[in-house]
């Protein structure tokens, strides 16, 4: 019995549309994940010979939740106010 999560093959454009990323950002993320060995990659034989990546539903959900504007605030609010640091 296979306990692997469900996965689908996406072109970079399909991945972008599914996650809310730009096509360029989706391609960059896909290339990083393939290089890291986390995603599989293939090139279709039929024209237009599109590149596709295999993405699990779990990974798609993470990408959807952390897309543009979905991530945590990179800097604490107090450091953005420009006030003096305590203890200095």
Give the termini distance in whole angstroms.
60 Å
Order of helices and strands: EHHEEHH
Assign a percent range to the helix content.
Answer: 25-40%
Q: Which stretches of 5+ consecutive residues score pLDDT under 50?
A: 69-80
CATH topology of the domain at 7-67: Arc Repressor Mutant, subunit A
Classified by CATH, the class of the domain at 7-67 is Mainly Alpha
* CA-based gyration radius: 18 Å
> Which architecture of the domain at 7-67 does the CATH hierarchy give at level 2?
Orthogonal Bundle
Structural class: alpha+beta
Shape: globular
Count of DSSP H/I helices: 4
- The mean pLDDT is 80
Spatial order of strands in the largest sheet:
1-3-2
* CATH homologous superfamily (4th level) name of the domain at 7-67: Winged helix-like DNA-binding domain superfamily/Winged helix DNA-binding domain
The major β-sheet equals: 3 strands, antiparallel
In short:
The protein has 88 residues and is an alpha+beta fold.
Task: Please characterize this protein's 3D structure.
The chain is α+β, with helices and mostly antiparallel strands and 88 residues long. 39% of the residues lie in helices and 17% in strands. The chain contains four helices and three strands. The chain has helices at 12-19, 23-35, 57-65, 77-80; strands at residues 7-11, 40-43, 51-56. Strand 2 (40-43) and strand 3 form a beta hairpin. Helix 1 crosses helix 2. It starts with 6 loop residues before the first strand and ends in an 8-residue tail after the last helix.
């Amino acid at each position: 019995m296979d306990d692997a999560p469900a996965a689908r093959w996406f072109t970079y454009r399909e991945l972008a549309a599914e996650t809310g990323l730009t096509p360029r950002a989706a391609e960059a993320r896909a290339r990083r994940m393939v290089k890291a060995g986390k995603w599989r990659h293939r090139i279709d034989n039929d024209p237009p010979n599109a590149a596709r990546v295999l993405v699990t539903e779990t990974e798609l959900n993470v990408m959807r939740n952390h897309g543009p504007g979905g991530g945590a605030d990179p800097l604490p609010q107090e450091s953005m106010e420009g006030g003096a640091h305590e203890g200095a």
